[in-house]
Specification:
Blueprint (H helix, E strand, L loop, with lengths): L1 H19 L12 E4 L2 E4 L5 E3 L6 E2 L13 E3 L4 E2 L15 E3 L6 E2 L13 E3 L5 E2 L15 E3 L6 E2 L13 E3 L4 E5 L18 E3 L8 H5 L8
Parallel strand pairs: 3-5, 4-6, 5-7, 7-9, 8-10, 9-11, 11-13, 12-14, 14-15
Antiparallel strand pairs: 1-2
Length: about 220
Amino acid sequence: MKNFILLFISLFIFSCDSDSNPTSPSLCDESIEVELWGECYNIQTTNILDLNNSGLTGEIPSEIENLINLTNLTLYNNQLTGEIPSEIGNLTNLVRIYLNDNQLTGELPSEIGNLTNLVVLSLGVNQQLTGELPSEIGNLTNLEQLWLYDTQLTGEIPPEIGLLTNLTLLKINNNQFTGVLPEEICNQGDITPDLSSNKFCPPYPSCMSQSDIDSQDTSDCP
């Protein structure tokens, strides 16, 4: 009886240990699928990832780079945190990116300049995005809409912004951009870009509206 009790106790402890450290094999066939936020997506056939307003949390997984045929990445209005993964620059078929209205942090990866097919880049209302706008933004010559409003981006606007001649909408208002705006900003397609509520210093480019000029914090200007 004593041996039986000891055996029972041993089996019980083993069972508890197993329950507290469960193994969770992936539900996905890793040879043809990638797992993102608990769902499986076919690597070859997934071209649209539309998960807006889905209650997503945590970071954007770097494994997203495996969706090589992705053209539309729509993740707005979630609670995503962390930095935008540099691996996103490997998704060279992307046409539209909507990451706005999240809690993303850190700097914009320079690899975003690899996405030369982009038509829309929307990153607004990520109030902990920091750092400068990478000069590689000038590679996105097919871009029509650039939404960067309500973040904490800093530094000077690179003159490469003038290469975006297909832009019809540019919103970089409510940031911490500084320095003198390059006249090249008037070369891009939006003739009335929203540049308000930053820290730009004079002289101002010819396409900048008077209301945008009046909204600048010039306390740190020379």
